[in-house]
Specification:
By secondary structure, the chain is α/β, with parallel strands linked by helices. It has ten helices and eight strands. It starts with 14 loop residues before the first helix and ends with a helix.
């Protein structure tokens, strides 16, 4: 490679050691798994699909009126896409804050961090949770790709896509990249038309049951949504649209202002640095992504993707010992983002009211 002018950057000296350590940790956790109840759900460990679903059911049965779960659709293999709503559920005036995680199967830290956030929002003694729930109703989908996620536990730890089959029986490869399947600039740059590719966007936009279910639900609440946030890993990026082009949205400065607030909140938590910018400029071109669709179709102004820890040393094998720190960073980022968006909306409403008053005064004179 050196003779061809290619530069080599070694991110991990020994990937196998990370695999072995994760297997060892999982083995210890599985040894006492039969003794666990949903009440004693360990937020500092990674969990299977069934355990996560049981935990959500437990929360639904114990949170009184502050939360409810809803199955918004099914995966290709028949697993539930289970959403948890948290906040003042009957108050239609409160804006919504959407968070999804696990759309890429191997990114285990994203569902784990989402569940950490859920626990904090439902903790009546947590002041940050109270602060957020006074301002937003949260819609959190901890596992957007349950089939792929389960496959990473049973077969291939580094599987990325879902587990659907192509309608053409001659195609033997499984799966579509759910984050290239959304119907906004679908099939353009940064995606593949080859079914065996990791970033295969599907045989048509919204070909996948999982993305259709998510899109339908988001559209049903889009009028109230103030923020869309999709959790991924790894790299430590806070990304804005667009992913399909290096051109920037007209309100890019607004997106950057809020994104920088969130990144600074993360830095103040444990010192982690997150780069902020548009997906195509900071990371790479990626068309058919959920955040582009949320902004371009559903009309959610503040639409982001967060690539969580780490910077590549552990990559997809982030140790379970880092879940809590990552969850705390996410909680603080969501708090900063939510507070900033709320201030912007208040200022905008005040400007509109001042404009109306000035217009009325002019009419009187």
């Amino acid at each position: 490679m050196l003779t061809n002018g290619l530069r080599i950057n070694i991110v991990t000296d020994d990937l196998q050691s990370l695999v072995d350590e994760e297997r060892r940790t999982r083995s210890v956790e599985e040894s006492d798994r039969s003794d666990r109840t949903s009440k004693s759900f360990n937020l500092s460990a990674y969990h299977t699909y069934d355990e996560i679903m049981s935990y959500l059911d437990y929360l639904n049965n114990t949170c009184n009126s502050s939360c409810s779960t809803q199955v918004i659709g099914k995966s290709y293999e028949g697993r539930d896409l289970k959403l948890i709503k948290i906040g003042r559920l009957n108050d239609e005036s409160i804006p919504g804050f959407w968070i999804d995680a696990g759309i890429h199967a191997r990114e285990w830290i994203s569902p784990a961090a989402a569940l950490f956030l859920v626990s904090k929002l439902l903790d009546p003694t947590d002041p940050i949770g109270k602060f957020l729930l006074n301002r937003y109703r949260f819609y959190i989908l901890p596992l957007a790709n349950p089939d792929g996620y389960e496959y990473t536990w049973t077969h291939d730890r580094l599987w990325r896509k879902n587990r659907s089959r192509h309608p053409d029986p001659r195609v033997k490869c499984h799966g579509v990249d759910p984050n290239r399947n959304w119907d906004f600039h679908w099939g353009e740059r940064g995606t593949s038309s080859k079914p065996c590719a990791e970033n295969y966007g599907g045989w048509q936009p919204f070909s996948e049951m999982e993305t259709r279910a998510m899109a339908n639900y988001i559209l049903s609440i889009s009028d109230s949504l103030a923020v869309y946030l999709s959790l991924h890993s790894y790299g430590q990026y806070l990304l804005t649209p667009w992913g399909y082009t290096t051109k920037l949205p007209a309100d890019f400065n607004d997106l950057m202002a809020m994104g920088n607030l969130a990144a600074e909140a993360i830095r103040k938590t444990h010192g982690m640095q997150y780069a902020v910018g548009s997906t195509a400029r900071v990371l790479y071109l990626a068309s058919g992504g959920s955040d582009d669709w949320a902004k371009g179709v559903a009309g959610v102004k503040y639409s982001y993707t967060i690539e969580l820890r780490d910077d590549g040393k552990n990559g997809f094998f982030l140790p379970a010992s880092m879940i809590n720190d990552t969850g705390e960073e996410l909680l603080n980022a969501v708090t900063a983002l939510g507070a900033g968006v709320k201030r912007q909306e208040t200022r905008g409403r005040r400007r509109r009211n001042n404009y109306r008053e000035e217009t009325q005064d002019k009419k009187k004179t």
